[in-house]
Amino acid sequence: MDPIEEAGRQWSARGWDDATPGMLAVTSIMRAQAIVQARVDAVLRPLGLTFARYELLQLLSFTREGSLPMTRAGALLQVHPASVTNAAQRLEAAELVVRRPSPSDGRVVVVSVTDEGRRLAAKATDALNAEVFTRPGLAPERVRDLVDVLRELRADAGDLG
């Protein structure tokens, strides 16, 4: 039995037919997110990383100089400034990034990945590629469909800038 389908049956039985498809979609997305999060956490936790910290390390590793202003990193990661600050603080405590004032504007904080941060980001990426990203839980021909559907949802929310 699929508990989400049963919830849909209960929704309809209570006369909420118009809301049933949306409830099924939202509940399914939330459950799928929990499943994916557990898989990602199982890979990153032994490396001492969360997904937020991994994303910041990887983002910095993608840049030419290995550095970005904190505000720009937060915008690119689409997270609240407090979230990027928290991730950077934790990574700095682990000596995976350093934060310092911008030489051109002391009000701006620049975060830079260290050599050890680059190594850990590469190791985490190899593990995520092998254990999660190449096996997302869907047939390969369905993965693009999922990405396209979720992009529509993100676009409707104004997430695409």
UniProtKB/TrEMBL annotation:
| GO process annotations (BP) | response to stress
In this chain the HTH marR-type domain maps to 22-155
GO MF term set: DNA binding; DNA-binding transcription factor activity
Keyword annotations: DNA-binding, Transcription, Transcription regulation
* InterPro entries attached to this UniProt entry: HTH_MarR-typ, MarR/SlyA-like, Tscrpt_reg_MarR-type_CS, WH-like_DNA-bd_sf, WH_DNA-bd_sf
Q: In terms of domain of life, where is this protein from?
A: Bacteria
Q: What is this protein called?
A: DNA-binding transcriptional regulator, MarR family
Which organism does this record belong to?
Answer: Klenkia brasiliensis
